[in-house]
Write a structure and sequence with these properties.
about 230 residues; alpha+beta; 6-stranded antiparallel beta sheet; 3-stranded antiparallel beta sheet; 4 helices; globular
Length: about 230
């Protein structure tokens, strides 16, 4: 008697929704990590052509964005990414797939062209430019200081600052001296209380909140000032 088959045929067990969601979440995190790797390559290529400097260390007249580093110009934080646009090629690299409240720009333009040419354009910049990207920038990033943070997921909270509640975009000085009550943490909004980090040596790391704090401590920067997009 044959006993190996099931009556009426057989099919693989359905994957539970929890498992399916976990797989999707992990896949999206891998895409986010790859985005940061590509951002690192773009920044390195820019620095190679600009005496080792990143866009936010180069004047606007030379193709950089240094004039927008003042905290009073934080509405224009998006301009640092725009200055890197030739190397990035597409603004899609600047949006984490887990970040549901980002606009998915398809052009690095500041505004739509007039007329028919602008109908399909979703510009990166302008008044909503700080909602076009998911990643912070490290103000003290330096290709000669490999441990300095270059970029990472925006979902950071520290002291009274919570990026998820940020309606403007800010420069936040995090420093490197932390206490049990004063320590940087990831929020749950992107990767379930974790995040991804890009260092100035172009290495990319998945990090818990405790690892985020350690990366900041290990950096060669005293201030660890991070340039954030809007959170909402």
């Amino acid at each position: 008697m044959g006993g190996g088959g099931m009556e009426g045929g057989s099919s693989a067990p359905a994957i539970s929704s929890a498992i399916a969601n976990a797989i999707k979440s992990n896949d999206q995190r891998m895409i986010c990590l790859n985005n940061l790797k590509q951002i690192g390559v773009a920044a390195q290529n820019y620095a190679t052509d600009n005496e080792g400097r990143f866009p936010w260390q180069v004047s606007e007249i030379e193709g950089g964005s240094a004039e927008y580093l003042s905290r009073y110009k934080s509405n224009d934080n998006w301009r640092h990414w725009q200055a890197l646009s030739n190397e990035l090629v597409t603004p899609k690299l600047l949006r984490c797939p887990r970040d549901g409240n980002r606009m998915q720009a398809n052009s690095f333009a500041e505004r739509k062209p007039r007329g028919a040419a602008g109908r399909t354009i979703i510009p990166f910049g302008g008044r909503s430019g700080n909602l076009s990207f998911s990643y912070f920038l490290g103000l003290e990033s330096d290709k000669n200081k490999p441990n300095n943070i270059l970029s990472g997921d925006r979902n950071v909270m520290f002291a009274k600052y919570d990026n998820d509640q940020d309606k403007k975009g800010q420069h936040v000085k995090i420093g490197k001296r932390f206490t049990a009550k004063m320590v940087p943490m990831w929020t749950q909004s992107l990767h379930a209380n974790q995040g991804n980090i890009l260092l100035s040596d172009l290495s990319v790391w998945q990090a818990s909140s405790s690892r985020l704090a350690q990366y900041l401590i290990d950096s060669h920067s005293r201030d660890n000032t991070l340039i954030f997009p809007r959170g909402q």
